[in-house]
Specification:
Blueprint lengths: L3 E3 H8 L3 H10 L1 E2 L2 E2 L2 E5 L4 H4 E6 L5 H10 L15 H14 L6 H10 L4 E2 L5 E2 L3 H12 L21 H6 L4 H20 L4 H18 L7 H7 L4 H5 L5 H8 L1 H7 L16 E7 L4 E2 L5 E2 L2 E7 L4 E7 L9 H15 L5 E3 L12 H5 L14 E3 L9 H12 L17 E3 L2 E2 L6 H16 L14 H10 L9 H7 L1 E7 L5 E3 L2 E4 L1 H4 L5 E7 L7 E4 L5 E7 L8 H23 L6 H10 L33 H23 L1
Parallel strand pairs: 8-13, 13-14
Antiparallel strand pairs: 1-5, 2-3, 4-5, 6-7, 8-11, 9-10, 11-12, 15-16, 17-20, 18-19, 19-22, 20-21, 21-22
Helix pairs in contact: 1-2, 4-5, 5-6, 5-7, 9-10, 13-14, 15-20
């Protein structure tokens, strides 16, 4: 009773394809040999799972023997036949009459002589015959524990050519010199590619370098053409060094390098809505008409909820040249917070239009008392410069342009230097005025928010709104904050002096009843960092609210309302002073000072060590008493005497 082989096992045994084996079993004949075949019901296969099986006893004898060999261990062989190739198994089967005898024995030699030049069929079914030397070589490989059959080169994997066969054969250099020239050539090619040289120019420069290097080492054939032909550079020498182009890309085209650099993968799993919001500004590629007839594009300010991929937008259009400012972004951001709630963290780029985000850091920290994510000292995250691929909102802007905005009229594409054209030489007609495009853009964004994404996307086949509803059903709730509170958060605290119940901010005077009753000299004001204020929040030195100041009104000298307002302010100030008076006890300060002086003890001096007298009779010589003032007659007499002395002196000198 033989063994029944499946179609696959039969194909592997005889070395043919599965389909060829299937046809042979269906015909019950293979290579003119009848086969004993049966049908069995299997779990797989055509025709209701029916499969063919062949009895091993009906196979040709050589394959029966091969099957037997493949199921047993070969004598004196340490390795199993299982897993060997068909060629190896065939050689073991073919050489078995000789391999069963000891090495270098007469019996083995006689067996090999008997097998030599004997016609047979190899593992592929091809009629072959082998010489005695071939059989001896395969038998020796078996004795060495190696696979029997065809084998690769013994020097496989080793470099057999230094530069090229023609150059290696032509030059008379020794191996070390050839290796030195080849290494210098490799460095030359690397340097050329690192410098940004093209493929063709690199081959030419490398060929010139090899010619010069060969001549420099003393080889100058009589025919220069012979050397030039021999120094032709194989393309493989350049191909294996192409990765050095990455250096040139890194130095000269950092955008292309950055697109290829390794990145990490992020997931939205376990993220909650508004846990991280990404903000950015994008120019909409749709031409709009200004009132003066010129065309321009609008700016889209977008905020993306990373966890749900929802997008909130605001549109801005400049009737003249201009750019997006902080106050524009604040208004869109405040509208988003009013609708979606306060985000836990804000991820924006380093543009000046997002400078307001630093003012919101404290406000966002108040919204996450139970946040267990990675610890941060700030909840405002600034992206690295020129790192657009790190922000998912950048990719979303590209999808909006491609899938939605491009369907609107007036779409010019993202390349401003090569805008779309309705006809050759004519740019597409504008969409219309800014008021016309706003509903269209908002409609596109609403469609995106309600469109299911791919099953391999972060949302796993759900739309942003559907993902958001899942979080709502799980109990998530937003943290509310009004628009006015957002605007107030984007302000600086500045100190001001209170002068006559008013302060000066931005070249204007501000006042309010609370400020008119304020009794301190200094007050602290919350000054908006980006907006022109209509009112100002006043704080005391402890940060407590004092009131809201409004611009002071100027009155005409004859306007009776001015007198009335002045009287009201004086009344408020007097009342504040009276309240201050009642809040402290009455104390007679003068009486306190007099009483404190009277309570001090008198100081008693010691006995004098000497007596000073002004009596001229008792005056010592060292004391000079002052003279009394001289009369006018005495002054004239003294003057005459001085003149006489001077005249006498002059006469002596002359005479």
């Amino acid at each position: 009773m033989g063994e029944w082989l499946s179609t696959v096992e039969f194909a592997e045994l005889v070395g043919i394809g599965r389909q060829v084996a299937h046809r042979a079993l269906r015909r019950r004949r293979w290579r003119k040999n009848p086969l004993e075949v049966r049908k069995v019901n299997g779990r797989r296969g055509g025709n209701a799972g029916e499969q063919y099986q062949v009895n091993s006893t009906s196979l040709p004898l050589e394959y029966q023997h091969r099957l037997k060999v493949s199921q047993t261990l070969v004598e004196n062989h340490s390795k199993s036949i299982t897993g060997r190739t068909a060629e190896h198994a065939w050689w073991l089967d073919h050489l078995r009459p000789a391999l069963q005898h000891p090495v270098k024995s007469t019996a083995r030699s006689d067996a090999l002589v008997e097998l030599a030049d004997k016609p047979t069929r190899n593992w592929e079914g091809t009629a072959v015959s082998y010489s005695l030397r071939t059989l001896q070589r395969h038998a020796a490989r078996f004795d060495d524990g190696m696979k029997v059959g065809r084998h690769g080169r013994s020097d496989r994997g080793k470099k057999r050519v230094v530069i090229s066969r023609r150059w290696d054969k032509l030059v008379p250099f020794d191996a070390s010199t050839k290796a030195k020239i080849a290494d210098d050539l490799k460095q030359e090619i690397r340097g050329l590619l690192k410098g940004g040289m093209s493929w063709g120019h690199t081959l030419q420069e490398a060929e010139k370098f090899l010619i010069d290097a060969t001549r420099a080492w003393g080889f100058r054939p009589g025919d220069p053409n012979v050397l030039e032909r021999a120094c032709s550079i194989p393309t493989d020498l350049v191909s294996v060094e192409l990765h050095f182009r990455n250096v040139h890309r890194f130095k000269r085209d950092h955008k292309a390098y950055d697109d290829r650099r390794p990145r990490i993968r992020r997931t939205v799993a376990c993220m909650q809505p508004m846990e991280l919001v990404v903000g950015d500004v994008h120019p909409v590629d749709i031409h709009l008409t200004r009132p003066d007839g010129t065309v321009a594009t609008a700016r889209l300010i977008g905020f993306l909820d990373w966890a749900t991929q929802r997008l909130w937008i605001g549109l801005i259009f400049f009737e003249r040249r201009g750019g997006v400012q902080n106050r524009d972004v604040i208004e869109v951001f405040a509208a988003m917070i009013d609708a979606w709630g306060m985000p836990q963290s804000l991820y924006v780029d380093n543009g000046k239009e997002f400078g307001f985000a630093a003012f919101l850091d404290d406000a966002m920290q108040l919204t996450v008392p139970g946040f267990h994510g990675p610890s941060r000292s700030t909840h405002v995250i600034n992206a690295l410069p020129y790192n657009a691929s790190a922000k998912p909102i950048e990719r979303l802007f590209g999808d909006l342009e491609t899938r939605y905005f491009s369907t609107a009229r007036g779409h010019i594409g993202g390349n401003r230097m090569s805008k779309k054209q309705e006809a050759i030489g004519r740019t597409v007609a504008p969409f219309g005025a800014f008021e016309d495009v706003v509903p269209a853009i908002e409609g596109f964004v609403r469609t995106y928010n309600h469109t299911a994404q791919g099953k391999k996307s972060a949302l796993k086949g759900l739309s942003p709104e559907a993902t958001f509803r899942k979080h709502l059903e799980a109990g998530w709730a937003p943290t509310a904050m009004s628009r006015d509170e957002v605007r107030a958060a984007c302000a600086r605290t500045e100190e001001r002096s209170v002068v006559q119940g008013a302060i000066s901010v931005g070249g204007r005077h501000w006042t309010c009843p609370e400020l008119q009753a304020y009794q301190y000299e200094k007050i602290w004001v919350r000054v908006p960092a980006y907006h022109t204020p209509a009112e100002l929040l006043l704080l005391d030195r402890y940060g407590e609210r004092v009131g809201i100041a409004f611009p002071d009104i100027e009155f005409h000298p004859l306007d009776k309302r001015g007198a009335k307002a002045s009287a009201e302010r004086a009344k408020v100030h007097r009342q504040a002073v009276r309240d201050l008076d009642r809040s402290a006890p009455d104390i007679d300060v003068a009486a306190r000072l007099i009483a404190r002086g009277e309570a001090q003890p008198d100081s008693v001096p010691n006995e004098p060590v000497g007596i000073v007298s002004y009596d001229p009779a008792k005056r010592p010589a060292r004391i000079v008493m002052p003279k009394g003032a001289s009369t006018s007659e005495e002054r004239r007499r003294d003057q005459d005497e001085r003149i006489a002395v001077q005249m006498d002196l002059a006469k002596r000198i002359v005479g």
